[in-house]
Design brief:
The chain has 347 residues and is an alpha+beta fold. The chain is built from seven helices and 15 strands. 54% of the residues are buried. This is P1 family peptidase.
């Protein structure tokens, strides 16, 4: 990876794959993509929203081609059925806890209506996309403390530069018995002499203690924590600027599973593992001016480089989420240790 592209993972000498990382080594290396957080830490609350804006225009009017791959469907996300059917994305993507999905849906609908008053009147309704993991081990999920104002705050905070670790939706998440959270990574490559980027943003809340495998083969295990059932979840959002059709994006999203498997995941019965992929190349007009559109599409035989990038960025983004997250106590004094502390002690 490029020496200019520092990340929590590379700070400990861990290299995920062989492709070059982007300038910032985050999903925001894909031009137009921004990420923002709202973090709620109060009493027994360790939760929040993370908002990803796929471009800076009106997403309802200028949709992006997208696809979803449900690796294991033990989840309560919203909007995936229409993304799978129509192959488009028309709102920001929200990440949150399981009981925050409804609040996120309402906030995205209100935002879309404020920008497009014709929604639900003279044109169709809008498909909000909200993805979730259960942060109930460290946070009082029953409090249902997140509000629509918190969604607005996360969206308004969206930037090319954003925090990783225990922030936003990742505040109360766990992974492989360690503290989990929000992580990101990117890869760059050439096609027809042009440089392109693929980036990943993950919400890491999965994996049994003792199952984690580092890129160098080590297997960290939190002290005094027995192996338990796999009941977590992971959300992977992949963005690229390569011109693709929805079917190709679904194939790329499927390769996020390869990155998860490299870490030691096996997609347990109680784990919700979902990958959403979109491209910023070629917007889809809601109000079409003609019956046909002409689009540039990647030749299928050239797609392997994107498969590799999807696996590498997913693997690194999860590790970045864990390494960037300090040890935390939460609800009921429950505790998750930090992978960074384990690496510092076992380097």
């Amino acid at each position: 990876m490029s020496s200019k592209s520092r990340s929590p993972c590379s700070s400990y000498g861990l290299a995920c794959g062989t492709l070059e990382a982007g300038k910032g080594n985050t999903i925001a290396d894909v031009a137009g993509v921004t990420v923002g957080h709202f973090t709620l830490r109060d009493g027994d609350l360790r939760t929040g929203f993370t908002a990803l804006l796929p471009h800076q225009g009106n997403l309802f009017c200028e949709k992006l081609t997208a696809a979803v791959e449900v690796i294991n469907g033990f989840g309560k996300s919203a909007g995936l059925v229409q993304v799978d059917e129509l192959g488009t994305l028309e709102t920001p993507v929200l990440l949150t806890n399981t009981f925050g999905v409804g609040t996120g849906v309402n906030a995205l609908i209100r935002r879309a209506i404020s920008e497009n008053p014709e929604i639900g009147r003279s044109t169709g309704t809008v498909n909000p996309v909200v993805l979730e993991c259960n942060d109930g081990y460290l946070s009082d999920i029953q409090a249902m403390a997140l509000t629509e104002a918190h969604v607005v705050a996360a969206i308004e905070a969206a930037s090319e530069s954003f925090e990783q670790g225990s922030v936003g939706a990742g505040t109360g998440m766990s992974a492989f018995g360690f503290k989990g959270g929000i992580g990101s990574a990117s890869r760059v490559y050439e096609l027809d002499g042009r440089r392109f980027t693929l980036g990943a943003l993950v919400l890491a809340n999965f994996g049994r203690p003792g199952d984690l495998v580092l890129p160098d083969g080590r297997r960290p295990h939190p002290k005094d924590l027995k192996r338990a059932e796999e009941r977590g979840s992971v959300i992977v959002v992949l963005a690229t600027d390569v011109p693709l059709e929805s079917r190709q994006l679904k194939r790329i999203a499927k390769r996020a599973g390869a990155g998860l498997a490299r870490l030691g995941a096996f997609y347990g019965n109680g784990s919700g593992d979902i990958a959403l992929a979109f491209t910023t190349a070629g917007r889809v007009a809601h109000f079409a001016s003609s019956d046909f559109v002409v689009r540039e599409i990647l030749v299928e035989d050239r797609i392997d480089i994107l498969f590799q990038a999807a696996a590498e960025t997913t693997q690194e983004a999860v590790l970045n989420a864990m390494i960037a997250s300090p040890a935390m106590r939460g609800r009921g004094r429950n505790k998750r240790p930090s992978l960074a502390d384990w690496l510092a002690a076992n380097g």
